[in-house]
Amino acid sequence: MGDGLVKQVAERLAGEVRAEDTAARLGGDEFVVLMTELAEDPEMALMETQIVVQKIQSAIARPFHIDGNELHVSISIGITLFPENSDVADDVLKQADIAMYKAKEQGRDTFQFYLPSMQLAASERLQMENDLRKAIHNGELSLHYQPQFSIDDRLMGAECLLRWLHPEEGMISQARFIPVAEDSGLILSIGEWVMRSACKQLRMWELEGRGGEINRLAINVSPKQFKQRDFVVMVSRIIEKGDSGSAIVETIISMTHHLGLEVIAEGVETRGQLDFLKHSGCHHFQGYYFNRPLPVDEFEKELNESINPV
């Protein structure tokens, strides 16, 4: 958030709080509002707080004008009451922070009141982040490869899917650890590892004489990776290092159509879906109708069977 925008946000924030309240900037794009002289009755205090919060939301929802440009800003608000939840300043700020992240999870432009149960969830999330950091260094992450087939049923590639085998909890779902990786920034190092590992595996298959059989791997890329200034250079270097010239690494993301990339229909689970997609002009497919994501040894077995059908 630029300085000009920060200044305007601060001005609007100060204009919506009550005279007895205090508004301050914590740093970056985070602000704190200290509301005092609320009603002693908890329900009335909540209502008074909610009125101010809604005024702040309305004020921030109006467009900002910076250097001739119109900008729209979203806001996530976390709220905690004291001394009901705590009378220690650091604890109060932590509780508001936890509630704010809960609001972000709900889709932004919303607010959440702190609940004690959120503390447990935050602690579990922090533990997962620490475990994920260890997983990167301890080699607990691996890639599985879900086969992709052409319109003539030829195995022509695969999507690389990340798997995490935790030493104590076993296989952990992507739905649990990917959001943590995104929020913590670990997705950047994980994403680079995925690219390097995929290119290395593709190169190994090529050296084994299978380069003509499978010459593409689809890799899911986080929006945060795209925002890296050196993203294109990094990808180019990885491909150049792991590729002899004939192998191609394709990045498959949700905005495929906008980027003009080749479309692969994912999630094909029935023959009816496959027939419909073929009839609609789709030429590449992937899904449990063909196979589940496979460890490398099982994928190679599938590859051999595809080359030499019984």
Describe the structure.
- There is one protein chain.
- The protein is α/β, with parallel strands linked by helices.
- The protein has 2 domains: 114 residues, Reverse transcriptase/Diguanylate cyclase domain (Alpha-Beta Plaits); 182 residues, TIM Barrel (Alpha-Beta Barrel).
- It is built from 11 helices and 12 strands.
- The strands form 4 sheets. Strands 7, 8, 9, 10, 11 and 12 form a 6-stranded mixed beta sheet that branches.
- Strand 3 and strand 4 form a beta hairpin.
- The longest helix is centred in the middle third of the chain and has 25 residues.
- The radius of gyration is 25 Å and the shape is elongated.
- It starts with a helix and ends with a helix.
- About 4% of the residues have low confidence.
- This is GGDEF domain-containing protein.
Count of the separate structural domains: 2
Label the CATH architecture of the largest domain.
Answer: Alpha-Beta Barrel
Q: pLDDT below 50 for ≥5 consecutive residues: which ranges?
A: 249-259
How many whole angstroms does the radius of gyration measure? 25 Å
Strand count, sense and barrel status of the largest sheet are: 6 strands, mixed
**CATH fold descriptor of the largest domain:** TIM Barrel
Distance between the termini: 61 Å
The pLDDT mean sits at 83
Number of strands: 12
Helical coverage, percent range: 40-55%
CATH class of the largest domain: Alpha Beta
